[in-house]
Amino acid sequence: YPFGSHTQTRKNNPSPKTPPPRGGGVAMDPSSAGAGGNSLPSVGPDGQKRRVCYFYDSEVGNYYYGQGHPMKPHRIRMTHSLLAQYGLLDQMQVLRPNPARDRDLCRFHADDYISFLRSVTPETQQDQIRALKRFNVGEDCPVFDGLYSFCQTYAGASVGGAVKLNHGLDIAINWSGGLHHAKKCEASGFCYVNDIVLAILELLKHHQV
After folding, report:
1. Are 153 and 176 in contact (CB under 8 A)?
2. Which of 45, 74, 100, 145 counts the highest number of beta carbons within 10 A?
């Protein structure tokens, strides 16, 4: 999900001179990113150069909502491959997101809900029927292997994008994000953690309404 200051809109260590704030992401080796990753400015239709960052975790395409489910994270990997083949990774800073921590997610979500997401697995869900109903986890929002890691990854990417915007970049891209249906205490519409709200809260540290 791309977002930025314009409306059209896992391993190398970060530079020791200017380490990014928590959530900012880790610069990827160009070979692991597919290509590029040189953080070159992109030129917009108005002729102005814009600094773009792109968050991607190579594991994201391995998550699987289940047979017949319309939400298919492997499409994110396909999109990344297209970016690499078209040479677009040369035009942006490619970063592996830092996984969001419990306390990061609880800036918006309830503690008990996040605790549930962290503990539930396909093998244990039948022992947590009441919690599944309480938190609206089921057909639309199923329990799958790596569910919590998936949430940490996409939320960490969006928060990391907000951190980058707060520190001078113009556009941040996270194709795995935008899961805005998730509520404070429950999942909704294929979404478990509302990364958009979390990113907004990060932006508000520097941009007051």
Report:
1. yes
2. 100
